[in-house]
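Structural prep section.
Before we set up the soaks we want a predicted structure of the protein with pyridoxal-5'-phosphate in place, mainly to decide which crystallisation condition to try first. Input record follows.
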Amino acid sequence: MSVAVAAEQDRAPLFDGLREYARKNRIPFHIPGHKRGRGMDPEFRAFLGENALSIDLVNIAPVDDLHLPRGMIKEAQELAAQAFGAERTFFSVQGTSGAIMAMVLAAVGPGDKILIPRNAHKSVWTAVVLSGAQPVFMEPEIDPVRGVAHGVCLATVERTLEEHPDAKAVLVVNPTYFGVCADLRGIAEVVHRRGIPLLVDEAHGAHLYFHPALPCSAMAAGADAAATSMHKLGGSLIQSSILNLQGGRLSSDRVQAVLSMLTTTSTSYILLASLDAARRYLATWGEELLTRAIALAQRARREIGAIPGLECLGPEVIGDRSSSYDLDPTKLCVTVTGLGLSGIEVEVLLREEHGIEVELSDLYNILCLITPGDGEESVCRLVEALRAISREHYRKRPATPVVVKTPEVPPLAMSPRDAFYAPAEPVPLFESEGRIMAEFIMVYPPGIPLLLPGERITRGALDYIQEHLEAGLPVQGPEDPTLQTIRVVARA
Ligand SMILES: Cc1ncc(COP(=O)(O)O)c(C=O)c1O
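Run finished without errors. Recording the tokens verbatim:
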């Protein structure tokens, strides 16, 4: 980074501008009605504090407007674009879900084909329903040891594009929740050969931009758009995110218009300020902070790997599968089947006996994220807790043989949009085989649908859902929260 750029990145015009405005102590006759907290529950006011409440504003002229940025928000977005190597950056107060929906809806319309990994997040599928686009599934590489999907490889994208030369866009998830990155540069190249945009769900990759030892980011790989979750791993407040653009295959004005359609008119300035401050912190201190986080994670990976019954996903394991995969070392995916326990059982033991919360668990694994918010102490606590669980459980139960079942992909019988809007009726979940799904059912986290609207329900899919329910995993999505019934397309 040049001296001039470094000096620019040291600024936080939006955060500073809001504090400056708050200092003026203007008399507000506008929303929010709590008026700097004076009109709100006193206990909540005291808890949040005066500073936060003083910048809980609405889009009055002096503080700019996310829907038509001309002042401090525009400047903050421009600084973010510079930091992320994008041509334009948009702030999102609708999480990464909002950013994903905006990039998909800006890229494709009714009937357009878009290539998508079947294990994409529900926000991608929501955008498919809203746009009326026709999804073409790409199968991710499945890790037979852990039962997790490692993202779509270059050869799959190439083959699917050959089969569907009329596709209008390609979307990939990179990195995956578990930190696995595909050959994104290669994927961008084959997608661009067709003259269409590559959209990246980069929910788990905000930090990749700020350390040379981390895998390649979406913008560096040449992707056209990336929805990058600042609140997940970039240090901003929960629900704030960004959408990065470059390359001109997607019109930035169209993206701005679509994002605006999807965004509340009462945008939170606390969230926006947190994006500005998080960008400044990453751009100025990110490399140093991440060097420490990577070292902590690598030590934890070594120590966890030495615990009987546990295995920690490492770059060598990914390297065995395909040299074109890369791993974000800050994600610790710990496979626990050697203890004879499920991932969810270890999650509960960590919570109830050790005061530790993991990011997620599934049938075989737990996932822990190491970030600049960690220190020696938190990481040692995790390793110690896993050692204690191993001492107590290793060889007490027969080690679960690793029989990894991967979800069967049910056939798409109707477009997701047509199924979602078709006349529907509730039927008992486990008597729905052969019917066409009219809603979503997923495990959250990670929010990947087990069944999508338009898919014909198979026995395999129902067995897979049952297995997740029996393991106590958070299956959700249908209108009936008890999951007794699901909505399927009504028979004519
Ligand atoms: C892969 C992926 N994409 C998108 C999202 C949506 O992000 P957000 O919760 O910020 O809307 C998530 C959230 O978990 C995710 O895991």
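Observations: The mean pLDDT is 94.
Flagged for discussion at group meeting.
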